[in-house]
Amino acid sequence: MHGLIQPNAASPLLPPTIKALGWTSFLTDLSSEAIYPLLPTFLLRELGGSTLFIGLIDGLATALAAVVRLPAGALSDRFGRRRFVLFGYGLSAVIRPLMGLVATPFEALLVRASDRIGKGIRGAPRDALVTDLVQPAIRGRAFGHIRALDHAGAALGPVVAMLFLFFFPGEERRLFLLTILPGFLTLAVLYRLVHDPAPRLPPPARVSVPVRLCRQQSLLLWSVGIWALGASSEQFLLLRVADLGVPLVLIPLVWLGMSLAKSGAALAAGRLADHWHPRRALATGWLVFAAAYGGLAVCTETMTAVAMVMLVGVAYGMIEPAERSLVALLSPAGHHGGAFGWYTLVQGLLALPAGLLTGWLWQQGPHGVTWALAITAVLSTVACLSLTRPLVATGERSGSDQVAIRERNPAHEPPV
Questions:
Q1: Helix (H, G, I), strand (E, B) or coil at 216
Q2: Could you read off the pLDDT of 201-211 as tens digits, one per residue?
Q3: Do 122 and 90 contact (CB within 8 A), yes or no?
Q4: Contact 267, 166 (CB under 8 A)
Q5: How many CB atoms lie within 10 A of CB 377?
Q6: Can you tell me the distance from the alpha carbon of 213 to that of 107, in angstroms, rounded to the nearest whole number?
Q7: Phi first, then psi: what are they for 159, rounded to 5°?
Q8: How far is CA 230 from CA 141, 351, 368, in A?
Q9: Nearest 5°: phi and psi at 99?
Q10: Taking phi first (over 0 means left), then psi (-120 to 50 degrees means alpha), and beta for anything else, what does residue 26 get?
């Protein structure tokens, strides 16, 4: 079939380290999402903060995390992945529960920013470690496995918080402090089960952040940047369904459904990225994302809006494994950390302008919401065209693409 990569034999099993990384993601997101949905109300009622400060906390935390991603990834190319993964998860595990002790909005900002810095430190080295550990033929499945457990933890976290507060109403601080328990369990799993593989290549002679990227890497980052500019906070999705009639008490169920949709789609889409070129899998995910946001822009029925939000979750599940597989495919051996650093840096830095753009459009009169959602659909479509059109027009394939396909199936003739 045109565009498909057919493996010669059954796909190998995922290494134990990949499964362990999946469970660390599950536990980390469980503890994080037990706090995050409660944070705005906690800041306003308990600490006397403002809505502006809520926006500042998320924007600044995301920006700080983005800044550390690139050097952390590049350093992991030289000194190994495990120490950065362990330190990043450890920093978040220790810092996050301190939200239960803060007394001022500024202290909450410090805790949230430190938590996100930990995420920034571990992100690129972890994805590079996955690339090091698995064969190219199952990269998508490996990334899909980790993302699926990540989203499963994100789905369970709010449920745990809701049940805890049902039995212990008003005890948010105690809940925040108790998130140290899954944090310590995360560290135990990492320490016992996650290790760097034996090096196949000598490390770079010196630590350096790659400044010049190949054409295909630059094209990918450009396309990811276009898409990220439209992929603003998912809180806007919840606001949309609330405006169309979903009762406030049921909003957490919408969040839960979207997280489960992400998790299930990531499992399936990871395999798709392995059997179908990750570039095409990513482009397909972006088109589904555009369709979902386009539907949200024009729909007026409550159930239709909820269905479109679920479709956004499916799109995220399709996009994340394909993006990471493509970054790994296009990056040179021994420099995967730096490549993932660039990828996560671009996404992180554009999170703030994406939120500001959507928020500003949202307030522009009776049609502002429609325009905000429609712009996201347009940007996602443009990103898809940016990623795929040069290849369709010229019929060229990068050398990295050819190498990756030969690794997957030496006898396969790569399609144009």
A1: helix
A2: 555 555 555 55
A3: no
A4: no
A5: 21
A6: 39
A7: -65, -45
A8: 27, 9, 15
A9: -60, -25
A10: alpha
Q: What pLDDT digit, counting tens, does each position of 212-256 carry? A: 677 888 888 899 999 988 887 787 888 888 888 888 667 778 888
Chain position carrying tokens 């190319």: 77
Rounded CA-CA distance 292/301 in Å is: 14
Crossing angle of helices 16-35 and 105-133, rounded to 10°: 160
CA distance 188 to 367: 51
Structure tokens at 123: 């992100």
- The proportion of the chain whose per-residue pLDDT surpasses 90, expressed as a percent, equals 28
| Contact criterion met (CB below 8 Å) for 387 and 282 | yes
Q: Name the phi and psi angles at 126, rounded to 5.
A: -65, -45
Considering Cα of 96, then 100, then 102, then 106, what sign does the dihedral take? positive
If we measure between CA atoms, which residue out of 376, 401, 343, 357 comes closest to residue 224? Answer: 343
Other CB atoms within a 10 A radius of the CB of residue 191 amount to 12
Bridge partners of 276, per DSSP, are 4
What is the C-alpha separation between 351 and 188, in angstroms, rounded? Answer: 32
Return the beta strands (E) in 338-396 as ranges: none
- 375 confidence band (pLDDT: 50, 70, 90): very high
Pick from 8, 1, 14: which is nearest to 271 by CA?
A: 14
HEC string of 77-98 equals HHHCCHHHHHHHHHHHHHHHHH
Q: For the domain with range 16-196+213-408, which CATH number is right: 1.20.1250.20, 2.40.10.10, 1.20.120.520, 3.40.50.300?
A: 1.20.1250.20
Cβ atoms of residues 266 and 314 within 8 Å: no
Average pLDDT along the chain: 81
